[in-house]
Design brief:
homodimer, 204 residues, alpha/beta, TIM Barrel, 40% helix, 17% strand, globular
């Protein structure tokens, strides 16, 4: 669970296809891809998920579906990411099975506490910094918050929200295992290079 | 598959709770309940589905979930209803298993033909009449269209769209096995009586 974690947003891809951006990002070294779609129909979402799953088949990169367990099951994804408005974790685990990757968002200390004794695959500290990509979030954790989570939680930590080349090292030093990005890759002139820059920081 | 088939729409319940309307409708004799929610979060939809499933536990009335196979699986619903923008039928059947009720909407002859050799539980001719409840539909089938479907299709037919007490008998005579209604029950002053009126017409 260490690496660059891409969360997709088709609206930030500036007319490029999502598959194109994902492929470039994977070539640049992202270690995990989460498809997040809040407006597509089930049919469209599943169709996209199947296409991305096929594309990822050539790489050792798991596919995570945001929220939709049905889409994840139907496309053979490796897991789901569960936010606060999504299915309860226990229900998702029951449907996905014991081997699936199931990550959860933690926006408050109550969330961190709640998941401490559950077998989640990771907790995503959201947001680390304020970000325009996702505005329905809680107060940013900041580096201090991240450090506090790290000292308490037994789970791998994915940091998300406002992460870029200039703050990545500090986020890692504060305890993040993975760096999740949306616009840093989706909106990059060169998604492959953007992914590689973060990967190099993580491995550096 | 003969009876009154309630499709829910919380916006048409005029401030009454959905559970309240469903309970009254079931007391009035509906034989099947489909929960349709296009705006709720997964968490809210599942919470509602679990509540309605529990409520229906005392009656021999199956619970069908519109579109969302994940919600259906998580709440233990009896089946799903699949529209043209939803998961493909084969994928839904694969996830729901061979015993689930899986109904599909047919809006064109292509749809009717497509499902003829598949093991769908029913086809829903949609809409039979023009209706303000759902505007993203094809051209109404009308009674002639319903008769034509009946003479061709091997599947039970659920008629939906603009059905009420005054046209119910004709819809049945044209070949419908079930009468699906939304506003006729959800918006009725007395949902129990509205359901019973249609049930009495079906039972002749």
């Amino acid at each position: 669970m260490r690496g660059v974690y891409l969360v997709t947003d088709r609206d930030l891809c500036f007319g490029r296809s999502l598959e194109d951006v994902v492929l470039k990002a994977v070539r640049g070294g992202v270690s995990c891809v989460q498809l997040r779609e809040k407006t597509l129909s089930t049919k469209e979402f599943l169709s996209e998920a199947i296409a991305v799953k096929e594309l990822l088949g050539n790489f050792p990169v798991p596919l995570i579906i945001n929220d939709r367990v049905d889409v994840a099951l139907a496309c053979g994804a490796d897991g789901v990411h569960i936010g606060r408005d999504d299915m309860p974790y226990a229900a998702a685990r029951g449907l996905m099975g014991p081997r699936a990757i199931i990550g959860v968002s933690v926006e408050t200390w109550d969330d961190v506490m709640f998941f401490q004794d559950l077998d989640v695959s990771y907790i995503a500290a959201s947001p680390v910094f304020a970000t325009p990509t996702k505005t329905d979030t809680g107060k940013p954790w900041g580096l201090e918050g991240l450090r506090a989570i790290k000292s308490f939680s037994r789970h791998p930590i994915v940091a998300i929200g406002g992460i870029n080349e200039s703050n990545a090292r500090k986020v890692l030093e504060a305890g993040a295992d993975s760096l999740a990005v949306v616009s840093w890759i989706c909106s990059a002139d060169n998604p492959e290079m953007a992914a590689r820059q973060l990967k190099n920081i993580i491995e550096g």
